[in-house]
Structure formats: C-alpha cells, structure tokens
Amino acid sequence: MGSDPASVAFDSVNSAIARQADVLIIDTAGRLHNKIHLMDELNKIKRVIQKVIPNAPHEVLLVLDGSTGQNALEQAKQFTQTTDVSSLAITKLDGTAKGGVVLAIAHQFKIPVKYIGVGEQMQDLQIFNKYEFVDSLFRLK
C-alpha cells in the first residue's frame, strides 16, 4: 500500500527471475479507464518490466464486467489504446447479464476471449467456449 505500482512490478519481475519462476502474474485491477493517471501507470509498468525482460509482458488479459453492457466497449477502447491487450475475460455472467457486448469487443479490437466468470469460486472461471456462449445468449430461462 502506498508504493509505486511500477516499482512493485519491477521488484516482482526480479524476484521471479531470482526464484526461477515459470510464471509471474501482475494484477493491475481496479483501474478506471477514465482516470488518465491510472492508465499512464500501465505504460510505466510495461516500461519497467521491459527493462528486465525486453519482450514482456507475454500476455495482457483485460477482465471486463459482463454486467456493464456498452460501457465495456468504451473500457476496451481505452485499454487497447494504452496497452497491448492480448486476450479478454468476461465476468459476472452468473446473474442476468449475458455479456453479449464481448462479441463486439472481440470483433472490433481483434482480441480473443479466453475466459468467462460465472460465479465467485475458482472453478467458476471457465475457459471460453464460443458455441456454449452463443447458445447461452439465446437460451430462455
């Protein structure tokens, strides 16, 4: 708390290398696309990581709330302008939200959907299945 996010990321990368870790996940959750200074921090995080690993990050997963509707499209626009988003996850699909906007986002920004969240437990984060997803959009409950 109170630390510079980029320096925390830098220290984390160095620590992961020292420990010979196979994977390092840097969670930058809580960023609002309309807060310029938070979006600028994403660029800074990427730059400091690349000082240690020039071709990093290897994946940037944009997690979108399925209940936000069309606002998710604007979020995707802002995040893709700020960083190289490589895949999407759409969450909160366990309620009335269907998350159909993710189809427009994936198409417009050419970003594949990797995961969906259908609850709050670990097993509720599922690998995206395009056939099941489209079926769920038209299924009557």
General description of the model:
Helix content is 43%, strand content 13%. It has helices at residues 5-18, 36-52, 71-82, 101-109, 130-138, and strands at 61-65, 87-91, 113-117, 125-127. Strand 1, helix 3 (71-82) and strand 2 (87-91) form a beta-alpha-beta unit. The longest helix has 17 residues, at 36-52. The mean pLDDT is 87.
Topology:
Blueprint (H helix, E strand, L loop, with lengths): L4 H14 L17 H17 L8 E5 L5 H12 L4 E5 L9 H9 L3 E5 L7 E3 L2 H9 L3
Parallel strand pairs: 1-2, 2-3
Antiparallel strand pairs: 3-4
Helix pairs in contact: 1-2, 3-4
Tell me about the largest β-sheet.
Answer: 4 strands, mixed
Task: Give the strand tally.
Answer: 4
pLDDT averaged residue by residue: 87
Mind telling me which CATH architecture of the largest domain this is?
3-Layer(aba) Sandwich
The N- and C-terminal alpha carbons lie at a distance of 44 Å
- Unreliable residue stretches: none
Physical arrangement of strands within the biggest beta sheet = 1-2-3-4
- State the CATH topology of the largest domain: Rossmann fold
CA-atom Rg in angstroms: 16 Å
How are helices and strands ordered from N to C?
HHEHEHEEH
User: How many helices?
Assistant: 5
As a percent range, the share of helical residues equals: 40-55%
CATH superfamily of the largest domain: P-loop containing nucleotide triphosphate hydrolases
CATH class call of the largest domain: Alpha Beta
What's the number of structural domains? Answer: 2
Q: Which class of secondary structure composition applies to the elements?
A: alpha/beta
Gross morphology is globular
Strand content: 5-15%
